[in-house]
Amino acid sequence: MPDLLPTLPAGYEARPTTADDVDPVHRLVAACERALYGRVQSAPGVIAADLGRPGLDPERDTLLVHDRAGRLAARAWVDRRSEVDVHPAHRGRGLGAALLDWVEARARQAGSEGIVQTVPDDDTHAVALVRSRGYRPLVTAWQLEFAMVDEPAVPEPPAGLTVRPFRSGDERAAHHLIEDAFDAWQPRRKSYEEWARHTVGRPTFAADRSTLAFRGDQLVGAVMSLDLPEAGEGHIEQVAVHPDHRNRGIARLLLRHAFRAFHRQGVRTCTLWTHSDTGALTLYLRVGMTVRLGSTVFRKGLADG
């Protein structure tokens, strides 16, 4: 058992998460999403990738809370970022507050300077709770969607640019391009292994709906896509263009290729997430995407008490 445990309401017990818990945790998260959005947004691969974060020790950095009948009621993990989810049937009993206390205590124990929590804007109770605990807004995140009644039109590429689907063997070059492109706003570079767990290593990675752009032999743009069968949607996990090749329509072109590929597979909606630090919202709106929902990334400095 971890050396820190939350003080839980009567009738609940906590233990660390194991690799065998991925599916039950996803069912818990899916129940929360259905209650809030009316649809499932996530996939088991997201849970597995989070549990495989470099530096995260499941024995000390994760908790599952079960009721007397053994039903999963809540979960939490912390590793610079943190997540807390409480099943809709178990809300209003203090589980969220107890797990927030544990997240903060564990982060302090690990020597973290701050803790970050992403909260859906529509979850007003959760927003009020984190604000009451001293969390302050850091960035805004949006989920956008692209609805496709008809097959999306795809413009011709600029002269000298070649576009093709992702192939086996493209992994390392795509990782390098994406990390270079994200250097301007992400706090640290991801190793190949960490990046792959969220993209090409996931069972839902859709290589045939991921698109790459080359100028000669140089990879200059990439769209990495996932198939989300539980949601009945396609998802764009990452969009990146080499800094020297931006403002030439490459991202819009690659997105259109990906949308068309999804449409030809019978998918009628694609989604992606972006946040205010990337400055990419205007790009996605110009492509024809619309904002479906928003979240706020909150941060609490641990010196703030």
| SSE arrangement, N to C | EHHHEEEHEHEEHHEEEHEHE
| Helix fraction by DSSP (H/I, runs of at least 4) | 25-40%
Low-confidence stretches: none
Outline, from the CA principal axes?
elongated
Number of helices, where a helix is a run of at least 4 consecutive DSSP H or I residues: 9
Separation, N- and C-terminal Cα atoms: 27 Å
Residue share in β-strands: 25-35%
User: Going across the major beta sheet, what is the strand order?
Assistant: 1-2-3-4-5-12-6-11-10-9-8-7
Radius of gyration: 20 Å
Instruction: Please provide the count of β strands.
Output: 12
Compute the average pLDDT. 93
Q: How does the helix and strand content classify structurally?
A: alpha+beta
For the biggest sheet, the summary is: 12 strands, mixed
